[in-house]
Amino acid sequence: MSDADIGYDIGFEVEDAVGSGVFVPLIEVTNIELPDEQTDEVEVTHMKSPGGMKEFIGGLTDPGECSVDTNWIQGNATDVELTSLKASKQKRAMRIVFPGGAKWTFQGFIKGYKPTVPLGDKKQAQATIRVTGSTAIS
User: Fold this and answer.
1) pLDDT values of the chain reduced to their tens digit, one per residue, 138 residues
2) Contact 77, 118 (CB under 8 A)
3) Which of 45, 92, 103, 115 is the most exposed place for a label (fewest CB within 10 A)?
């Protein structure tokens, strides 16, 4: 039997003011893409690398980006918050809260905020967040 689960009852929260420690949930979140950390590869091949094969070591890690999709309701608290954060270019603490209380917490800024209005379908918005620094998983 599988232990797989569905994406449900998961929240995305943004710190209401820098350093406040008070997190406010975004409303009507429909999809969350978790941060996509990528580690640089550094080539360390030398004249006597075994078998003439390239050699690599891990370099610095880029914390990546994440995205949050919402039902776009123009002027609601989530729309206002994301629009304001995008304009401010300000870094904030953000976290993804899973059922059972597990959290992924990180610093980031809103790199992009894009509402879409498709014909005959729900209005949506996507916020792209540039993560800066490490993600704490608790």
Assistant:
1) 999 999 999 999 999 999 999 999 999 999 999 999 999 999 999 999 999 999 999 999 999 999 999 999 999 999 999 999 999 999 999 999 999 999 999 999 999 999 999 999 999 999 999 999 999 999
2) no
3) 45
Angle at 85 between CA 79 and CA 129, to 5 degrees: 90
Say if pTM beats, i.e. exceeds, 0.85.
yes
DSSP 35-93: P--EEEEEE---TT-GGG---EEEEEEE--EEEEEEE--TTSHHHHHHHHHHHHT--EE
CATH number for the domain that contains residue 20: 2.40.10
Structurally, how many domains does the chain consist of? 1
